[in-house]
């Protein structure tokens, strides 16, 4: 039999109900997916608007919550940065649903590889056992692992707007802030699961001069008066980004990768040249892209994970400058607030598994990038059934770069990085923060997972 057309829609319906599909359908699905993925480069090109997601880890019901908050495929264009499987109890249903959506709507969903999309790691952290339990054999696990080998290593998002179109939704309760109005350039907005504004940050029109003085003290960072004339229309090169804070100009591209950078990779073209169609190696560039983490260090450091490297702000700023990037988006590390910007917003961690391992108590986030120009891609979504949210993780503060350091702004700076000032305008960023799906939406086994959240 072949899976296609209405079969595929039936499989999607079944998986959305968290019911596995038969083994022969998995085989067909994986074959089709491989045919598609083999055509993709190591670095997939993606046009904004796009919604960027981090680790899922088999938390199927929370993936459903993610789609409720972020919109469904194909209405929303999604980019998932890997670690679909392991840890949670529904790796199979989560990965197969994403794979079905990929085959059904190939241009509306991008899947890149995480360090858990590997034979060795899934044998230890749950996916292998889950397949064995649900099918009685390792065949399905084997089919999925063959797909893992073909997943892209990264994605390059272009055409993102520097400013967000303001959300005219309500302001969240308990948000003790001055929300700047929609007339100014909005750089960051944080919304809760009901689409209520928790925080809004207007891009500082003085940031050009502030960034200039900062750049002088840091030779590795790019000058805001860009010396690279090839960056047509990029922020800071003059023509389109005036001190008046003109909105809607082009921004640098955004590199999305599961882990981070590699000392063996100084350009995106070098990622393109890798031979990716294999099990994740224990070392080397491909391994590093899936395993590395940013850290508050200078240069490169050894990773406590035993694979990949730690890399500091100087590495990120240098890489972004050289490759005309305004931002690196990555996943791979649990962040209690769901997202965390570092190094003057040159890199962000996005984490999309709320209450990780059903016990970490964290919230999750997804990152929406708008389309340069009209931002027509943003569709207001009606959010309904669930009230609440907010509460303990409201990030409200009216403290911008020069604001008062209230406790709230300190909390905020832990998410947005110590300085809001940038050497180069990044894309406008809308974070939707959400909690774990309500208990009554899941039939959850009460088993405590092992307690190393490292991998
Ligand atoms: Mn990971």
UniProtKB/TrEMBL annotation:
<dbReference type="Pfam" id="PF00149">
    <property type="entry name" value="Metallophos"/>
</dbReference>
<keyword id="KW-0479">Metal-binding</keyword>
<protein>
    <recommendedName>
        <fullName>Serine/threonine-protein phosphatase</fullName>
        <ecNumber>3.1.3.16</ecNumber>
    </recommendedName>
</protein>
<dbReference type="InterPro" id="IPR029052">
    <property type="entry name" value="Metallo-depent_PP-like"/>
</dbReference>
<comment type="similarity">
    <text>Belongs to the PPP phosphatase family.</text>
</comment>
<feature type="region of interest" description="Disordered">
    <location>
        <begin position="389"/>
        <end position="429"/>
    </location>
</feature>
<dbReference type="InterPro" id="IPR047129">
    <property type="entry name" value="PPA2-like"/>
</dbReference>
<dbReference type="InterPro" id="IPR004843">
    <property type="entry name" value="Calcineurin-like_PHP"/>
</dbReference>
<dbReference type="GO" id="GO:0004722">
    <property type="term" value="F:protein serine/threonine phosphatase activity"/>
</dbReference>
<dbReference type="InterPro" id="IPR006186">
    <property type="entry name" value="Ser/Thr-sp_prot-phosphatase"/>
</dbReference>
<keyword id="KW-0464">Manganese</keyword>
<feature type="region of interest" description="Disordered">
    <location>
        <begin position="208"/>
        <end position="247"/>
    </location>
</feature>
<feature type="domain" description="Serine/threonine specific protein phosphatases">
    <location>
        <begin position="112"/>
        <end position="117"/>
    </location>
</feature>
<keyword id="KW-0378">Hydrolase</keyword>
<dbReference type="GO" id="GO:0046872">
    <property type="term" value="F:metal ion binding"/>
</dbReference>
<feature type="compositionally biased region" description="Low complexity">
    <location>
        <begin position="233"/>
        <end position="247"/>
    </location>
</feature>
<feature type="compositionally biased region" description="Low complexity">
    <location>
        <begin position="208"/>
        <end position="224"/>
    </location>
</feature>
């Amino acid at each position: 039999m072949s899976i296609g057309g209405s079969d595929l829609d039936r499989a999607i319906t079944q998986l959305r109900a968290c019911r596995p599909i038969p083994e022969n359908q998995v085989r067909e699905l994986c074959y089709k997916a491989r045919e598609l993925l083999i055509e993709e480069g190591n670095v997939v090109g993606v046009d904004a608007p796009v919604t960027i997601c981090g680790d899922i880890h088999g938390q199927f019901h929370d993936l459903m919550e993610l789609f409720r908050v972020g919109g469904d495929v194909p209405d929303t264009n999604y980019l998932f940065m890997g670690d679909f499987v392991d840890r949670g109890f529904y790796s199979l249903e989560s990965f197969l649903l994403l794979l079905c959506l990929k085959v059904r709507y190939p241009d509306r969903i991008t899947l890149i590889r995480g360090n858990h999309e590997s034979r060795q790691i899934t044998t230890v952290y749950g996916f292998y056992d889950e397949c064995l339990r649900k099918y009685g054999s390792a065949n399905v696990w084997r089919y999925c692992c063959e797909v893992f080998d073909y997943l892209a290593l990264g994605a390059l998002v272009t055409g993102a707007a520097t400013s967000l179109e303001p959300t005219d939704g309500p302001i969240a309760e308990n948000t003790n802030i001055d929300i700047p109005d929609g007339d100014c350039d909005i750089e960051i907005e944080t919304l809760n699961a009901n689409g209520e504004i928790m925080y809004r940050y207007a891009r500082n029109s003085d940031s050009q001069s502030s960034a200039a003085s900062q750049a002088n003290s840091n030779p590795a960072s790019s000058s805001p008066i860009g010396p690279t004339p090839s960056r047509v229309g990029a922020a800071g090169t003059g023509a389109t980004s005036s001190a008046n804070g003109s909105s809607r100009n082009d921004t640098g591209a955004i590199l999305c990768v599961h882990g981070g950078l590699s000392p063996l990779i100084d350009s995106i073209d070098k990622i393109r040249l890798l031979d990716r169609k294999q099990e994740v190696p224990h070392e080397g560039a491909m391994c590093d892209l899936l395993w590395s983490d940013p850290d508050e260090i200078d240069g490169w450091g050894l990773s406590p994970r035993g694979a990949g490297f730690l890399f500091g702000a100087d590495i990120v700023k240098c890489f972004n400058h050289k490759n005309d990037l305004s931002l690196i988006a990555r996943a791979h590390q649990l962040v209690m607030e769901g997202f965390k910007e570092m190094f003057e917003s040159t890199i962000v961690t996005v984490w999309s598994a709320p209450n990780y391992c059903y016990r970490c108590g964290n919230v999750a986030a997804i990152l929406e990038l708008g389309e340069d120009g009209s931002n027509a891609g943003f569709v207001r979504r009606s959010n309904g059934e669930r009230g609440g949210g907010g509460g303990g993780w409201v990030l409200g503060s009216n403290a911008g770069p020069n604001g008062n350091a209230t406790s709230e702004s300190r909390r905020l700076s832990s998410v947005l990085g110590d300085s809001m000032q940038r050497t180069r305008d990044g894309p406008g960023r809308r974070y939707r923060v959400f909690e774990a799906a309500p208990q009554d939406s899941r039939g959850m086994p009460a088993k405590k997972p092992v307690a190393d959240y490292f991998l």
